[in-house]
Amino acid sequence: MTVFERRQRIQDLLRDQPGIKVTDLAQRLHVSAGTIRNDLSALEREGVLRRVRGGAVLRQNHRFVSPSFAARAQLNADAKEWIARRAADMVKDGDSILMDASTTVFAMVPNLEGLRNLTVVTNGIEIALALARYGHSVILIGGMVHADGASVIGHLGGKILRDLHIKTAFTSCSGFSVDVGLTEIDIQEEQVKRQMITSAEQVIALIDSSKFGKVDFTSFASLDQIAHVLTDSRLDPQFIDQLHQTHVVLTICGEQTASRFTPWHEANDHIKIGFANLGESMPFAVDVRHGLEQAAQEASNVDLIVADNQLDGGVALQVADRLIAKGVDLVIEYQIDEKVGGLLMDKFKRAHIPVIAVDIPMIGATYFGVDHYRAGHMAGVALGRWLVEQWDGAFDRLIILEEKRPGALPATRIQGQLDGLQEVMGEVSTSQILYLDSGNTTEISQANMLQALQELSTARRLAVISFNDDAAFGAIGAARELGREGDVVIVGQGADRIVRKEIRHPESRVIGSTAYWPEQYGAKLIQVATKILNGEPVPPAVYNEHIFITQDNIDKFYPESSATEGV
Questions:
Q1: What DSSP element (H or E) covers 434?
Q2: How do residues 378-401 score in pLDDT, each as one tens digit?
Q3: What pLDDT is recorded for position 562?
Q4: What pLDDT shows up at residue 245?
Q5: pTM confidence score
Q6: What confidence tier does 491 reach under pLDDT thresholds 50, 70, 90?
Q7: Which of 41, 270, 538, 543 could form a disulfide with 371 if both were Cys (CB 3.0 to 4.6 A apart)?
Q8: Is CATH 3.40.50.2300 correct for 271-367+519-536?
Q9: How far is residue 105's CA from residue 128's CA, in Å, rounded to a whole number?
Q10: ∠ CA 212-215-219 to the nearest 5 degrees?
Q11: Domain made up of 372-515+547-564: CATH architecture
């Protein structure tokens, strides 16, 4: 099958089964998951589909049943998309959620495609039809069909909801004010939404800015029943100030940034922290953001503004300007390109904003994160021991998937792996070493590893060290694509969830990865940031502790089942 034929087949499969996973596509088409991701990225650039967690959806693949609902969905469509994207990010594999029949909540649907084992209860016919195609368990509550054909209303639905216990309800409204709460024009819709709210542990309200300040016919939820309000960046600042004085967490969603405001407490001085994330396409970076958002909420006095550097130095400079314009007190900078570090620091210094640099150091910033050499060294030692035990210390080539953009200090994680290996094996001849560009992504690593494996067609013992787990995952993907898993042994860096799942496989040739604990970054970063802003002494570098994760110890440090560790 040619590349063109394969991509046509992908589109055909997505038309028939929109909820299909990357791993399922790879299995059906007999290629690696990395190859499928490359195909999906290419098709997205062509405008054919849109990437979501775990896979992709064809653009405009939902055929609306209700013309009036379709028309309403186009009103403030960009704002609804910004809000829905952040709302869907709050849903995890295996969750049970309630979704009302609003167009804003409907906008969450494409962003839920990559999740697994959701149970969704809804009165929205459009939502039920769309999500059922993704393979989720969907319960459409009973009652009368609304005149517009888009929802189910009436008391029968309320009877079903009273017997359910749901983790999270996502709801919207036709009008909202701090004093009155969430209001609706339609009293029958109001009755169903009222019961939804009482059936859920927490309620998240998705309200585009056009609805603020409006009070419609009937109220179905007061503000004290709402845990979190998500709106868009066009919101009038007066409403931000009003909500800041309540118990509700407020997130302002823009196309490129999201600002999260915790409730105001007079006893605490609020601080505003900007977080420029490495790249939202990387599981490691997403886990760092999730942990930081959770820690900011628990701190109760931290407002967090999140942006995406997109693995691009030029984008990072633009993000810096946006964070400065928002008046942040401190910036947590997570970016890939050492060359723009000085430019970023110049911007922040001129704005008198202190900086914490995550994993990639910047002169003048407090460093937080990986002890690069030590993390690499333990992986190299583990690889050396495996080679001695399994291959009698012999190998044909050592392949190094490197990344040069972060600069000299992160490069020491590669040197540490090489030194650790040589500590066990003795000196490795430079003629045995092949350096490849990892590109800091699975896709680039897989493509370059694939080419190397084809050129090394007669080699049967290839040891691989990796800059990060994306590179390790790309390496194993290339080996699988060529049916040469048995020819490689790979160590990773990060212990990302994508590689943790791989390590659990009994026959995996990814023998382990050094844990960086991205899920723990958030709490530690907030601690360091708070000390800096309070004028307390902070060491110039704050390092993580590291453990090399293998099949033998993974359940001790990551006891969750492999089913929760999606790729």
A1: strand 433-437
A2: 999 999 999 999 999 999 999 999
A3: 41
A4: 85
A5: 0.79
A6: very high
A7: 543
A8: yes
A9: 12
A10: 110
A11: 3-Layer(aba) Sandwich (3.40)
